[in-house]
DNA sequence: CCTGACTAGTCAGTTTCTTGAGTATCATGG
DNA sequence: CCATGATACTCAAGAAACTGACTAGTCAGG
């Protein structure tokens, strides 16, 4: 039941529509949680029913109407409760790790191709997160922003996302080097 | 359907029982995938039915009998196919990230307490992974092992696990520092 | 002697997540 | 002028994961 709280957290800063949330929780962007649009719309419906968020219809011309949501007092209380509860620590769960785990018995070139793909993806995310951080802190230096800037929550989670993708990048590069070296040694 | 392949990958090096796998895929240990025992036993049954692994009964005295599993040729072929298929990139999905995302509106001390808990957990995993790596490479220096040691797959995934937990550790420490500084600034 | 932990699993039920398709309108590019 | 692609969602079905309880024997500690 964390999607619930992830949605609440995402709506804290400002009113957002389901569609906007769907963009923010997208695979290519997600910096603190990931979910499909269908999940989000379902969750928004449940949250509204429970009174944790409230929605208002915005009539637009030139495009479909939308519903904008804000967190209610009850919703904020729920988030506070969630924050106080002990979190189960997250673990890595990554297809690529499974493939590398099998490195000894699986075709090396195939594996290197996968690692190379991942480098591309990780690099894109690194770039994205760096842009995002710059946008958030604006003119200020990072130390300045960290001390007084707002909102600080999204900035901190974005920092984690950045470090994570850099970690992926470094690891993929290292793994490729190792696999190539071994391949060369085996061929010799 | 990656649990399937994670199990195959875990059985590659040596024959293992469901119970051993359950230990290996445990929250406190998992270095490349996480799953509950019930999931594993169910998956093992399916894999055996499909002929991807084969099990043999081992009669023990003093403790319950167990079934040891090994990957068949069909199983290895399936892993090979999986390796060649494009993997969906993993994203972070962590309760703690959600809590930090809400940092601006949620009690700071509560949040710091959560971050501190996580530091403890992450430190334990860092220690565990470092021990594991030492065990795997034995007497050899790391560069030596990376070039010729076997199995290399588990070593590489363990390296990723280690870097990930170090990342958690650093981020939690940084977040705590930032939150405390801001708290001090706000009180002044 | 009893409790709790370890080995080695199984069963049932629910929640959560993913897949895939569908609706409808408007703006943009070739 | 026609095809994308963006905006803004909805519905249904299936796969994967999680929760919680239960069996049953062994061994060590208090």
From TrEMBL, chains A, B:
Residues 7-81 form the Transcription regulator PadR N-terminal domain. Pfam families: PadR, Vir_act_alpha_C. InterPro entries: Tscrpt_reg_PadR_C, Tscrpt_reg_PadR_N, WH-like_DNA-bd_sf, WH_DNA-bd_sf. Signal peptide: none annotated. Residues 92-180 form the Transcription regulator PadR C-terminal domain. It comes from the Bacteria. Transmembrane segments: none annotated. This is PadR family transcriptional regulator. The lineage of its organism: Bacteria, Bacillati, Actinomycetota, Actinomycetes, Kitasatosporales.
């Amino acid at each position: 039941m964390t999607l619930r709280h992830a949605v609440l957290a995402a709506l804290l800063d400002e009113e957002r529509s389901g569609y906007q949330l769907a963009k923010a929780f997208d695979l290519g962007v997600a910096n603190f949680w990931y979910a499909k649009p269908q999940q989000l719309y379902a969750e928004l419906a449940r949250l509204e029913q429970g009174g944790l968020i409230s929605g208002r219809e915005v009539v637009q011309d030139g495009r479909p109407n939308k519903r904008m949501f804000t967190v209610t007092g009850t919703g904020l209380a729920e988030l506070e409760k969630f924050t106080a509860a002990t979190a189960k620590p997250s673990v890595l769960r990554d297809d690529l790790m499974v493939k590398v785990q099998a490195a000894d018995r699986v075709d090396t070139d195939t594996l290197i191709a996968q690692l190379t793909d991942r480098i591309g993806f990780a690099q894109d995310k690194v770039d994205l997160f760096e842009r995002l951080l710059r946008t958030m802190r604006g003119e200020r230096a990072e130390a300045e922003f960290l001390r007084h800037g707002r909102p600080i929550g999204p900035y901190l989670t974005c920092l984690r996302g950045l470090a994570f993708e850099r970690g992926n990048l470094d690891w993929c590069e290292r793994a490729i080097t190792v696999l190539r070296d071994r391949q060369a040694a085996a061929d010799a």
